[in-house]
Design a protein that fits this description.
single chain; alpha+beta; Outer Surface Protein A, domain 3; 4-stranded antiparallel beta sheet
Length: 183
């Protein structure tokens, strides 16, 4: 029994949900999203709730039940509130600058790293250039963009330099000079 899949999804007042031939369409103040349901899953609108049900009782239906409910819930939350991820750049002289559909990162390499911002994503670099704010309505896309930008220079454990999520803890290692001499 899927514990997540059994929970009904509350539809906020400003969000409109339509289910048509195995596809869920969600429209809200921030935008529109759609998602195709698996053939083993069915979604119904009951009053101001969405209920996700299994059509079969097999292993793949169990797996898709919770996934379908979570994806629909993320869509409803995304079009009403949106998703935000903040990255922090740590290092002397490291900075980011967003202009138009490009994000330019100066990370101590011989050249700046230029990232083309995908559609549906907004990237802001506040006056404090060591932060990158990623916003969008699709939770998966926001997380994917944040992970891609972080992969340009992941935090290293010796000096702690690199790109990390805001609030991420990077455990530092002692260098080889601290280890002592053993012969």
């Amino acid at each position: 029994m899927s514990l997540i899949g059994k929970k009904p999804i509350k539809i906020p007042d400003k969000v409109k949900v339509t289910i048509d031939s195995g596809k869920v369409f969600v429209e809200g103040p921030k935008g529109k999203l759609d998602w195709s349901l698996s053939s083993n899953i069915e979604a119904q609108i009951d009053n101001s709730n969405i209920i996700v049900k299994r059509l079969k009782e097999d292993k793949s239906a169990f797996a898709m039940h919770g996934l379908a409910r979570a994806c629909i819930n993320n869509m409803v939350k995304g079009v009403s509130e949106g998703y935000v991820k903040t990255l922090e750049i740590v290092g002397v002289g490291y900075r980011a600058q967003a202009e138009g559909k490009k994000l330019t990162l100066h990370l101590g390499f011989s050249h700046p790293v230029v990232y083309i911002i995908p559609d549906g994503i907004t990237i802001k670099t506040p006056p404090k250039p060591a932060h990158v704010i990623i916003e969008g309505i699709d939770k998966a896309k926001v997380g994917e963009v944040a992970a891609k930008i972080r992969s340009f220079f992941e935090p290293e454990p010796y000096k702690g330099r690199g790109i990390r999520y805001l609030g991420e803890f990077v455990r530092k290692k002692a260098g080889k000079a601290v280890g002592g001499t053993e012969k």
